[in-house]
Amino acid sequence: MPREFVSRTSLPGNQLAASAARKFVRAALAEWTTRDVWPVDGVSDRVVDDAVLVVNELVTNAVIHAGTTAEVLCRLDTLCEPCGLVIEVSDHHPARVIRNPVEMEREGREGGRGLQLVAAFSEEWGITYRRDLKTIWSRITVEPEGQPAADLPEGDRALQRDLRAAEILAPAPLRTYRRHDSDWISRGSLSFLAEASDLLAGQLDEDMVASLAGQLLVPRLADWCAVWLNPEGPESEPRLARVWHLSENRIDGLRMILEKDPPPFSTSAPVRPGATPWPWPVAAETFDPGGAALACPLIVGSRCHGTLLLGRTGLMHMPDEVIGLIEDFARRVALAIGTARQYARQAMISQVLQRGLLPATIASIPGVETAIVYEPTGADVVGGDFYDLFPAGDGRWCFALGDVQGNGPEAAAVTGLARPVMRLLAREGYGVAEVLDRLNRALADEAAAALGGEPPRFLSLLYGEIVPHCAGRGARCTLASAGHPLPLVLSAADGQVRAVAVPQILLGITDDARYASESFDLGPGDTLLCVTDGVTERRNGNRQFDDDDGLTTALSACAGLGASAVAERIRRAVHEYDAAPPDDDLALLVLQAQ
Predict the structure, then answer these.
(1) What is the pLDDT of residue 179?
(2) Burial 357-370 (b: 16+ CB within 10 A, else e)
(3) How high does pLDDT run on average in the chain?
């Protein structure tokens, strides 16, 4: 067996492994067929589809039942007649014994259906157990396709290899519906639906789902298709989201025709599932002369998200097996659209809620330059970090930087309580320590009321007030830290950095906690930096950004910079600390006396 016809890969034991395995097998076959020394006459579409299906089932089996890294080997076996394609999938959980699917079915036991497919599509298959490895292998007979390569001129053989490689990487479309296409439907359709599910499931935008649906259908199953999306809001008509045609220069003409005759839409009448015949769109010189068309409602549960239209020229009607495949595909499209819409609704709710939890405006403090950076980790989840800067009367301005444990609606509820209570107490004239005392009791009461339900959410908070001195000679600052990263001051006089608070207990843990504040002067040019733990605990491997006083070092390098430049320098340093994006909300507040 020539070594050059062996390909190996290692895949992680997660939900992406099966998709990667299918691409790996297609790429291996495509690469082998382009070589000058090719030991077989050809590879049929049936062999390619069977190989993709087998590796999909074996890798899925390994991921679900073993959960370890999967090793995949694809090998061309020319030592036996006829030539065979051998696929091996190994996992590192040999203790799990595989039951024979035929025996399991005879015993009336569930499971083993994936191996039933492997057994059905393989010439032979088996399982090998080793001390730390279990391998399931399958051998598929390689059937020749077309004229034997040896009978062709050298130039034609090279062209045949190149064309076949392209066909393997992009499976040939189903151009007509004849007897041999029924075999494709029964075999290749399984791989088609599996690949379609992978592509559609990862999309969180309904228009992208519609676009992918068109590219998957044309030209494999249809010459043209269109996706109508039903409105979710007050709109009264469905929207033609995507039109796809085998000939791109006919897309605009087809869109104009379809827009004149949208599918029926009702918000009250139930829609019957399943594909139904649809009138062929006729227009001289802009569209195909005629054929068979279908309309498939995109239904999830009792809700219809839209309609999938498609057509094939030259047919009186669609065969039943093709209709069944299209209906299966439409169900996947409907599920993807429903998921995308649910995600969009959640993202919109989160954005509205996030805006409501943050101050609409930031107060301007006379003689103090201010800069704020706020970066939640995701637009679809309400962040746990918040900030505030507001006037409290009598020449005082109050500031806060908080971090609620966790995120989402529960964290938002804590923020929704903390900010207004904090503002109210400050404007009533309470000092920094008194504000924390009373806010702590309010949060502790809420935590006690939550016992037996959701776990309590604790709050770390840096809270303070600042009073500018007359004639622009700095400001007096009073603050306290409740379980929060300590604030730092960069001195303009000597460039030294010092912490200006002491650690105290988180808010909301116990109602009898008492907090203390400390006061200090910010001289002209001095900079106060307040951050959340999204800055200090930014990770790179086993290390954090603030290990070995990393934040102090970063702030020291900001000597001579204004407040906005300091904020940007620290933000950039946090992002550059690791190549991976931050996995926690990031917030920082900079106050610089003038």
Answers:
(1) 47
(2) bbeeebeebebbbb
(3) 80
